[in-house]
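Incident review: delayed structure delivery

Summary: a single-chain prediction request sat in the queue longer than the usual turnaround. Root cause was a stuck worker, restarted by the on-call engineer. No data loss occurred. The affected request and its eventual output are reproduced below so the record is complete for anyone auditing the incident later.

Affected input:
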Amino acid sequence: MLRRGVIIACIAVAAVVPAILSPASAQRRDVAISATVSRVDRGKYPGDVKVKLADVSCSPKGSVGRTIVVTPYYVRDSKGRPYLGPAPTNANLVAYYLLPGDRITGRLMAKGQLRGVYTITDLKRAPCAERPAPGPAPKGMELRTNLTEYPIGKPVRMELVVMNNTDRVMLFTFSSGQQFDFWVTRDGTEVWRWSRGKFFTQALTHLNLAPGQSKTFSTTWNQQDNDGRQVPIGSYVVSAQLTTSGERPPVLSKAIKIVPRRVSAAKISDILAKPEQYLGKTVSVSGVYYGWRVPRGVTGCESGPPVTRSDWIISDLKRCMYVTGLSDLDPVNDHGRNVSVLAEVKQTDKGQVYLRAEEVRAE
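Output delivered after worker restart:
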């Protein structure tokens, strides 16, 4: 009986060995690969990342395609979140920072394929891999302002435009939620900075620009310094920069001037007769204060208040206009007083022309 049992055991072992060595079983082994990164899709750091690989070379030869998609292997906690600390996880974090054109090596895990996506471990960037430029050349960045001379008090509009003029994807990495900054100096001394007093998320962020793509960052400076005071007339330099981690792109700067407000005297009748000559300009207008009451026999105020119910009326006894803002005059007791108004000429969407007051003086 013993001899017969040994024979049966040997037959069973002989049946198992061919299965272990069969091609189907061999494909279940880990596959060593080298490849070129063609695309990186990043989500929430660090676990949500997929890497598309091209020109894949593998061992055993032909065990995977020439183009595949991989995701890194991480040790995960009970909720499925990557657990930072274990060596396999730390080594594979490089997946999140790969760029198109990188050459990598790694090992596809035998039981890691899911819906056409392979799980890769032992991931390394080849030391001689050709890396895309970390950011655009200076000619791919531009600082713009809407004017070069600004009347005192007029907001300054700034734009930092980043353009990818290359034939490769560009990736910018930032150590926080702040991706740019604007500031203004006078004679080398900073007077205002956009980021002053702001709080940003302390998490890694990215900006990807495909070939031909651009990104514009913008802000408006109200001509006040960091302490909230109006800056004086004079020459200033506005500057902007991407706040990337590591070596940053160059600072871009542009000179502007703040000049005295140019004010011309204008008559209400002239403004209403040819509004296109006055729109957007600051003018000095004199007339009679009528409060909220439309004067008899005078035209120009038939459409009612253009901005708020508190808008008031000024008239030159021929025509009248509404004025919005800055009036301490009493609509009843000050009715009929002579006033002078320093104001910008504006127009509503419906075409009604009115004055936005900057200064009002009663005579």
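Verification: Residues 104 and 125 are 4 Å apart (CA to CA).
Action items: add queue-age alerting; document worker restart procedure.
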